[in-house]
Amino acid sequence: MSEVNGPSERFRLHVNGADREVVDAFAGASLLNVLRDHLGLPAVKGACEQGECGSCSVLLDGTLVCSCLVLAASATGREIVTLEGLTPAAGLSDVQRAFIEEGAVQCGFCTPGLITAVHDLLDRRPDPADADIREALAGNLCRCTGYGRVFAAVRTAAAWRRGEAETH
């Protein structure tokens, strides 16, 4: 039992296709905290911790969620995918490459959440309209950009997926 945080627990999470044991986590810990601090997945960023910025976005059973708002223990038996799970072992995903090519990466803090949201969008809508892109990215805050380059990256990745443009 932790003196500061209260009782600790042991449970399993299914993250990025593998079962991972979580040991000695605070019983009320957020999924964000457990993914970063207990499972060592740094792409899940903690910023506002109120579900407003999108930096902690993950896919939970195929739905984009802010991991700061999910109790980790409630995610047992569910499929969790972080940016690490969307990134191929041999390199970068098409969305990551598009972000680099279009200069959509600035300081990088919001980038994992944005890329996760774009993967979710393009998996649902291979040819998104501008309104679809705006809606999909509405939960992600970036202090470095006006989102123009992010929109360009979404369009580039979508074109690559549809085979309408050459990938680099």
Query: Which percent range fits the helix content?
Result: 25-40%
Number of domains: 2
Low-confidence runs (pLDDT<50, min 5 residues)? none
Number of helices: 6
Number of E-type strands: 5
CATH architecture of the largest domain, please? Roll
Shape: elongated
Q: Quick check: average pLDDT?
A: 92
- Briefly note the structural class of the backbone: alpha+beta
Order of strands across the biggest sheet?
2-1-5-3-4
Q: Major β-sheet, in short?
A: 5 strands, mixed
Cα(first) to Cα(last) distance is 52 Å
Which CATH top level class of the largest domain fits?
Alpha Beta
CATH topology of the largest domain: Ubiquitin-like (UB roll)
Query: Topology as H/E string?
Result: EEHEEEHHHHH
Our estimate of the beta-strand percent is 15-25%
CATH superfamily of the largest domain: Beta-grasp domain
**Cα-atom radius of gyration:** 17 Å
